[in-house]
Amino acid sequence: MSSTSLAKSGLNSFEYVELIKIFTLALEKHKDYMNSLNVFPVPDADTGTNMYVSIKGIQDSLKDKSNLNNFDELSKSVADFALLSAQGNSGLLVAQLFRGINSAMKGSNELGLKELSESFDKTYEYAYTSVHEPQEGTMITIMRECASKAKSLKNKNMSFVEVFEEISKSAKNAADETINQMELLKKANVIDSGAYGFSVMLEAAFNCLGIDNKGNVNLKLDGSYSFIPNIPQERSFNKEFFQDSSHDDWGYCVVFAISGKGIDIEKIKDQLSDKGRSLVVSGSDSVCKVHIHSESPGEILEFSKKFGEISNENISNMDEQFDEMKSNVSQKFKNNVSILAITSGEGITNFLKKNTFGSISFLSNKDFEEIDKSKFYNLIKRIESENVLIIGNSIKVNEKLSKFADSISSNFKIIQSSNDSELISSIFAFSPETDLNENMINISSALDENISIHLSDSDVENLDLNNNLKDLDHRFVTILSHENKHEESSKIQKYLEENFELDGVERITHSSSEYDFIVSVE
Q: Against a cut of 0.85, is the pTM above it?
């Protein structure tokens, strides 16, 4: 028998304990981000915390286990711990992964390809049957995709690590797709929090997997914790989601265990189905865990005593959690800063729309010339922001803005940019994530550093004689040119590129009658 045939082709019981630690560390790092995504089934910002606490509970329970050699026995203990430590809807769903592994480990002492495929298959089955009304675009969806991917690769002559990688990728892709599978998620502009958490667990685990030079599959924790996936930039909620979510009757999240003999899971699920929402019931004939949303947690617990002994109760007020999350999100919108930019034509407007982000509205010079004080006031009122920065593009525009000042509320500031070059610099210095004072400082600094070189048609004919066009090496240059002067604009660009080592050059058209060309230098 060759050494390759004796190679360890999966995870042993000690590595399973390490796997749980990897899950815990990954969720601990990502729980705040997961909480920020949490809108289903209730926007109460606790999915990340619940998943982390649930798996941390398993890890803590294993600290006192002295005999970890028997994988079958260990997986049974982990499955039980998972149920008892599960918190919230997400915690109870992720517990099904450990029940799935336990089911697959019957008579086996190594989690190999066969057991891995069976684990995900049973995980999905347990999760789907535990929920009263399963919905697409949740952690259950990800579990199904993982099970499908594992089954399709079982006989593909691939290693455990290779298969796990494909399953991990499948989970990540499926989690990203949840925003398109549930209307609630799409409306809030987020992916499902629990689905994301499940994909992070698998990605972190894969990052710790490897095969040594003897062909043995190994799972090793990186002491620097570099295996933990990077936390994405926080997604921006669609504020209308929270404006429309005015529920004041979310009630309580009630989670508890029922223990006894001959427990009938389906009977419990059936009899509790009309007593609340988001019902999840999972377990065995000796112990099960219940999750339900109810207005009357005491009545739920009292009613459930007929099924067995009640323990591990955890009750949280979802109305309070929802109000706190809504307040936190609303505060971000409330404190944001918006811009109203007055621009010289579609060329500049389209360039800014393409290359900036945040709440920026545009008004052409022509429209601004025709607008009166009353209409301008109404325009500002429609901008839903605590602070509005109004950026003009000429002295003439700024003078008119100053005349409008007494008719507009105090939540706006006029940025004294005197041309389109300074307007662009101001907007590029703007950050929607920054408060008003810091934005004003950054914009002021950008205006001080702005170099705007005005050129006329006659200047273009004698570019060599223009003393302002100097010291441009290693600078980025933007040429603002009238939309009817394409040939002259090309000539300016050619001259600059031939005479200076530019970091780059951009050409933008304008329709202003006040100037022909501006060479803007960064």
A: no
